[in-house]
Amino acid sequence: MTMPFMPLFMETLGNFSTWQLNLYSGLAFSMTYLSQAIVSPYWGSLADRKGRKLMCMRASGVMAFTIFLTGLAQGVWVIIFLRFLQGAFSGYINNATAFIAGETPRAKTGSAMANMMTASVSGNLLGPIFGGAIAGSFGYRVPFFITGFMMLVAFFLTWVNTKEHFKPVAKREMKPMKEIFSQISNTKLIISMFITTLIINASLMSISPIISLLVKRLMHGQGNISLVSGIVAAAPGFGTLLVANKLGHKMDEIGPEKVLITGLVVEVLLFIPMSLVTSPWLLAVLRFFIGIADAALLPAVQTILSVDVPPAAFGRIFSYNQSFQASGGVIGPLLGSFVSSLFGYQAVFLFTALMLGFNFILVIWSQHRQVLVKK
């Protein structure tokens, strides 16, 4: 709800050059992912001892506080610090995912993960729209106050309306991760899912720094570039919303592995022609189909993790997965900016296709290992 206009808000807090504003905006964006990647394993361990509901309440409560304070910030470094703090205590969706995975029958896990994906994408679509509208009418600070209040509502809804069948475990009674991994038939599959999560998020974020610049070039600097950029940026979300629930049911029918492999192949085949587009509308159409493929990826990974991991380790495994996802959020934009500065905007799409192609090979290899282990 607040990210689309974060650079514009920061611009009002001082007299910055374009280079400085880009740097501060990038820091504010990446700090959240960086701190999230560092502390997620600790929160995961605590979740396995104290329960996922408590972790959801911890995340929503602290985020309500930090987001509200961001609306009061008088300097860019205050915002960057609060964003770092927000990332360190975030993880509501990750813990809610582990919560749902632990409470859902195994046969329904795919559908549950897809529904979670739908809810997350819906928020990512509606948040910027409402946040931008509110900021345009009432100023940049008001959306932070509203978002903070909404996180407080999430805190109380989680506290009052959810029930977790969880028995707290003393720290000394927790199984060490070495023992947990020894109980998993194919640990390489789990590790490959972590890497898959990193690559998927890196591929999604790799083009985020250049979308508006590429659209501007494709439109030759004419027309409503901001509006078209917004449509191009939002297109994958609409595709994901359209099919996420259906793919969840398909996962329950044929297995998440097949859905994941198909999604990776489709994404590779879509990113390659993106490097050749000459129209922003064709780019939007291709990104819409990317969104359909996206609906198959992370839910499939989460389903594989929830099926192949002992319930006692859900919190730690999902938190490790969140660390890899956050790392992708840091690495993706940096790689995208680096590649585009050296080889041009179109090269980013080819580089992303190459990453996803490597990911496809990794998943196939880990699946082959799983078959050998079962034999």
TrEMBL record:
Q: Which is an annotated Pfam family here?
A: MFS_1
Q: Where in the cell is it found?
A: Cell membrane
Keyword Phosphoprotein recorded: no
What residues form the membrane-spanning segments? Answer: 21-43, 63-85, 116-138, 144-162, 189-215, 227-247, 259-283, 343-365
Per the UniProt record, the source organism is Ligilactobacillus salivarius
Give the record's keywords alphabetically. Answer: Cell membrane, Membrane, Transmembrane, Transmembrane helix, Transport
What SUPFAM superfamilies does its record include? MFS general substrate transporter
Can you name one GO molecular function term for this protein? Answer: transmembrane transporter activity
How does the entry describe its membrane topology? Multi-pass membrane protein
- What protein name does the entry list? Multidrug resistance efflux pump
Q: List, alphabetically, the GO terms of the cellular component aspect.
A: plasma membrane
Domain Major facilitator superfamily (MFS) profile, residue spans: 1-371
Entries under InterPro entries matching the protein: MFS, MFS_dom, MFS_trans_sf
The reply on keyword Cell membrane is yes
